[in-house]
Amino acid sequence: MNRTRLDDHLADLDADGYLLDASQEDANQLYLSGFTGPDPFLTLYADGEVHLLVSGLEYGRAQTEATADTVERHADYDYEYGGREERTDMYAAFLRDKGVESVSMPPRGPVGTADALRERGIDVAVDADDRLQAVRAVKTDEEIDAIRDAQKANEAAMRAAEELIAGADVAGEDVPADGDVERGVLLHEGEPLTSERVTEEIEVTLLRHGCALDETIVAGGAQAADPHDRGSGPLRANEAIIVDIFPRSKATKYNADMTRTFCVGEPSETLREWYDLTERALEAALDAVEPGATGEEVHAAACEVYEEAGEPTFRTDPETETGFIHSTGHGIGLDVHESPRLASGGEELEPGHVITVEPGLYDPAVGGVRIEDLVVVTEGGYENLTDYPIRFAAE
Amino acid sequence: MNRTRLDDHLADLDADGYLLDASQEDANQLYLSGFTGPDPFLTLYADGEVHLLVSGLEYGRAQTEATADTVERHADYDYEYGGREERTDMYAAFLRDKGVESVSMPPRGPVGTADALRERGIDVAVDADDRLQAVRAVKTDEEIDAIRDAQKANEAAMRAAEELIAGADVAGEDVPADGDVERGVLLHEGEPLTSERVTEEIEVTLLRHGCALDETIVAGGAQAADPHDRGSGPLRANEAIIVDIFPRSKATKYNADMTRTFCVGEPSETLREWYDLTERALEAALDAVEPGATGEEVHAAACEVYEEAGEPTFRTDPETETGFIHSTGHGIGLDVHESPRLASGGEELEPGHVITVEPGLYDPAVGGVRIEDLVVVTEGGYENLTDYPIRFAAE
């Protein structure tokens, strides 16, 4: 955690403290507390110090693990298990013990806690800017190394996926198609190679490299045309197969993110053009990445490549359902999606921002193509954290 | 989803509708919407109907997947990407379109949305009872089958873990200890067998059986005495090793949960007594499970076994840090921990409740023992969903 940056961003609060009530699932909480509590607990930033309040069951582990200045437990406020009212009484007592009569909470903080504190005379305001996001967006060297490590696992998993796809037989070509297996379906050890099978290979590889995972996308053909479709069923020759992997290090909890698009056999002329265009859009966007450039400008660089080729984007048609139908990228860290955004309205880039750059084209009649690299903004431009070839033909 | 039960529990709302603003990470949202949206979206229950409001990117998938009565997208309310104010304007327009001027939100709903709706004249109250939890607690047959399937994967993973532990050599006994490896350390293929290695085996097995996972506990010796310690480093002979696995089906999103405690070599007399006591506490608690019994009564049945043997519990000493220092169990479903609780104040059991029963004893000087089964409450008592032997000596 960048403590100076934290102090800077929380200095001008219009309240006595900044309050989080969340479990480790919440990235703000994990960042500010440094504690992997599985159940919601309180973290208070006040007067330049970070204070934790946890249950007795978590107390020992929180003392060892948390980066906070103080760690207290419920029993310190004479709380035994009781209902919600007693619990909020304890929270209010904890705040007042720290000299806090007013707090700011992030927009996704729990309304139950906010309203109950208000009933107890504590002033609660919503921090509409969610300012911890801006603090988290700029990574320390240690955080960048954590992301770099997760990306190494990601590359191993992508390699495993590509090998499985490249090594597949094609029904009706390498081996005869039969009544059960359509011509063109990819086969692995005689069975149809499915999205699920490739996903399993990816996820097992990630586990072997110390990463957990939420979801993985292995989507071919028309499925690849929906950027959020995770993919299912048999993969086929001559279609574009999008593989998008975003693993999380189990040790550090930091994420990486990379996408490649593969094809076995002969892609259509349109898919070939799309692949070339997308590679050029990636290069154009990367060229635009430097401190002081905005996320909007990087997004524009990718859009221009597509627009000049006549492909629709959200800039030329906000209603379009085909073409380049998402933003160019996003910050990544403890959350897979965090600040800054590479999109219309995207903020200015700073050294230490870790971002994805991931242009793509989509149309259910054609398929989908996306190529995504992971980079860190540096004083001089950017460093690409991705070490994986860009090639359409799986090998 | 049990629609009748939902209607019953939401009928007496003191508001026009019940509002969720969350992603699929929130179990209430996943339950009410039936949609696995990765970003927060709105679900409104009003006049006996469930309405979804999602982004354009999610619209196609939401229409196919969601169990809601209606699915709308942001563009239906003329919203293009804008700031937080425009977004809440859209939310208010969506609510008013459904004839809703007042909503109830669960306690962990986002305060940012609640306050912004209030600013727009929508009355927002907190549903302190979090009533969807009570709806979710009683499972349909389909939900029970989903949990049963996750438990099958769990049993395969436990088997893999037990085999790895049982098959280990003991340094200084089966093979010579040397300068690098302490006497008593378990060895697998010549390397120290660590908690991390066993966890990896468990997690890979779960993936092969279609389950994802959050955390797994493999904790030996003094680590096992902290019920929330996930365990790390080499495992040893003659110590109790707690293996607690709680996988989630990737297809259904329902969880299972099971704990076994294993030993290689000769456990101390105290550990042997603890194991026998814990097995008896489990039996006593299971005997108490039936419709109409309270979670408090089931917890009491386990506590009594321990208390009669002179072991401390939270009933005899609320401050104790050794003995039986957690509740006897919890409901399980889309969340690993949900209603009902088997603890002081625990509510009445109903047919369809799926619960864990998991007594244990802990002391850093001795180690930890926990045994956990997963059961469903039935008209006649309970059905045990767990099919795994209870034995201390790993085999």
Could you characterize the architecture of this molecule?
Two copies of one chain form a homodimer. By secondary structure, chain A is of the alpha+beta class. Chain A has two domains: 3-137, Creatine Amidinohydrolase, Chain A, domain 1, CATH 3.40.350.10; 141-384, Creatine Amidinohydrolase (Alpha-Beta Complex). Chain A is built from ten helices and 21 strands. In chain A, the strands form seven sheets. A six-stranded mixed beta sheet of chain A has the order 4-3-2-1-5-6, with helices on both faces. A three-stranded antiparallel beta sheet of chain A has the order 7-8-9, with no helix packed on it. Chain A is elongated. The first copy, chain A, starts with a helix and ends in an 11-residue tail after the last strand. The interface between A and B is large, with 50 and 50 residues.
CATH architecture of the largest domain in chain A: Alpha-Beta Complex
Overall tally of domains of chain A? 2
**Biggest sheet overview of chain A:** 6 strands, mixed
- Roughly how many Å is the radius of gyration of chain A? 24 Å
Largest interface: A-B, 50 and 50 residues
Q: Which residues of chain A sit in consecutive blocks of at least 5 with pLDDT less than 50?
A: none
User: How many angstroms does the end-to-end distance of chain A come to?
Assistant: 40 Å
Shape of chain A: elongated
**Assembly type of the shown chains?**
homodimer
> What's the CATH class label of the largest domain in chain A?
Alpha Beta
Structural class of chain A: alpha+beta
Q: Helix count of chain A, per DSSP? A: 10
User: What fold name goes in the CATH topology slot of the largest domain in chain A?
Assistant: Creatine Amidinohydrolase
